[in-house]
Amino acid sequence: MKTILPMMLGLASATFISLAGIAQAAGDEKLAAALPEAVRTAGKLNFTISLAYPPMEYNDAGSTELKGFDIDLAKAIAERLGLTAEFQNVEFPQLIPQVVTGRSDMIITAFSDKVERQTQLDFIDYFKTGNVFYSSTDHQAEIKTEADLCGKTVAVATGTSWVTWAEELGKSICPADKLITVIQIPTQAEHIMQIRQGRAQASVIGLEGLLDLMKQEPGKFYQIGAVGEVNHYGIAFAKANGQLRDAVHATLEALKADGTYAQILDRYGLKEAGVEEFKINGATK
Questions:
Q1: What is the spatial distance between Cα 6 and Cα 171, in angstroms, rounded to a whole number?
Q2: Mean pLDDT, all residues of the chain
Q3: CB 184 within 8 Å of CB 166
Q4: Within 13 Å, how many C-alpha atoms sit on residue 20's CB side?
Q5: Can the peptide bond before residue 55 be classed as cis, meaning omega within 30 degrees of 0?
Q6: Helix, strand, coil percentages for the chain (3-state, nearest 5)
């Protein structure tokens, strides 16, 4: 998940990223009327992100053009409200200070709704995530469930919570003499190499990461078992910004009702990660 993946393009201070070609739209007058007056007057929504985490927010090598599910959803929210979208890129630890100090309107960047974060922020949960085992399809006949990983080797990103998750799950489902062997290796590319070379039989990734991998390389990878430790990413607002939160919540409902939300999910192969309901502060742990 985002909090445990290295930043590729984190910056010590906020970087403003202009998006050419995003003109202010007419928007939905009823939705726009619910906005705080200061936001309507400014004519823009300022989103804070933390690059890079494809397929959620990223840019291609040599390009400054922002891409990803979060980016497209943010643009759709702003457009529906008749506003322009602006983005600030900051290092992950600066996300909360950026919003609570009023330098940004909201966070939209694969940012998990957690109870401890709700003391400072309000969340609109908009995206389902969690941990998944996966492997290359040549293992599909022998490894169908998590129990089939007992006695096997799983490559996991170094120092992440996925390490503990895989080890603990192995202890809960495997015989003591046939536990899952977890090896820690930094990158996903190296995990895949370990599987292809036979040094590991599977790996762990976030749900959206696997969906993106399967979209980029169709027919080469598959999910093993169910999604573990299911949680949600949330659009986060300062506690004092409840009016804006409610306006964005209503806008998300409208985007879902007319199919825009589903279209953006499908654009990135993320249909499985869509939510049935945009809960406010839905996390309970």
A1: 28
A2: 91
A3: no
A4: 2
A5: yes
A6: 35, 25, 40
User: What is d(CA 202, CA 245) in angstroms, rounded to the nearest whole number?
Assistant: 40
Entry pTM: 0.83
DSSP line for 203-243 = EEEEHHHHHHHHHHSTTSEEEEEEEEEEEEEEEEEETT-HH
The token pair at 55 is 């397929």
pLDDT tens figures, 76-92: 999 999 999 999 999 98
Among residues 161, 212, 205, which one has the least CA distance to residue 3?
161
Residue of 259, 206, 216, 261 lying closest to 77 (CA atoms): 261
The tokens for 227 are 């999604």
- Give the bridge partners for 133, in sequence order: 204, 224
pLDDT for residue 19 is more than 50: no
Helix (H, G, I), strand (E, B) or coil at 24: coil
Q: Cα(first)–Cα(last) distance of the chain, in Å?
A: 16
Q: What average pLDDT does the segment 132-142 reach?
A: 97
Mean pLDDT confidence for 132-136: 98
